[in-house]
Amino acid sequence: MSMKHIAGLSVIVLLAILHCVAGLSLEPRLPGGRCKCFKQTYQFIKPNKLTRVEFFPPGRSCPQLECLVTLKNGDIVCVNPKAGWLQRLIAYLKEKNGGKRGVSVANSTSI
């Protein structure tokens, strides 16, 4: 084995040990292991322009609740989950659904 291979293998073994012993999370360093939204809006979006509403709960890769809204034109908008209009829309959909499954706010859930 060359010196480069030994050094590379040593780094991998060290990272594996740190991950197991110290609980080091490598997730944020991997692609897709970050928050999806850099900016969020409170701006009202007409419900007839929406095709999908997704919620992503806080986790190791992102400490905040995120709401991604997909519009009929294909655009994706990050909406602040505390936006009043969004809260009213969720309440309306839950009421309309009559408590049946399909409208929930958990792990990457669509409404």
Automatic annotation (TrEMBL):
SMART domains: SCY
Superkingdom in the source lineage: Eukaryota
Chemokine interleukin-8-like domain residues: 32-93
Record InterPro entries: Chemokine_b/g/d (IPR039809), Chemokine_CXC (IPR001089), Chemokine_IL8-like_dom (IPR001811), CXC_Chemokine_domain (IPR033899), Interleukin_8-like_sf (IPR036048)
Cellular compartments per GO CC: extracellular space
A GO term, aspect molecular function: chemokine activity
Places the protein is found: Secreted
Major location (coarse): secreted
Keywords assigned by UniProt, alphabetized: Cytokine, Secreted, Signal
Pfam families: IL8
GO biological process: defense response; immune response
Signal peptide start-end: 1-23
Record family assignment: Belongs to the intercrine alpha (chemokine CxC) family.
Protein name: Chemokine interleukin-8-like domain-containing protein
Native organism: Xenopus laevis (African clawed frog)
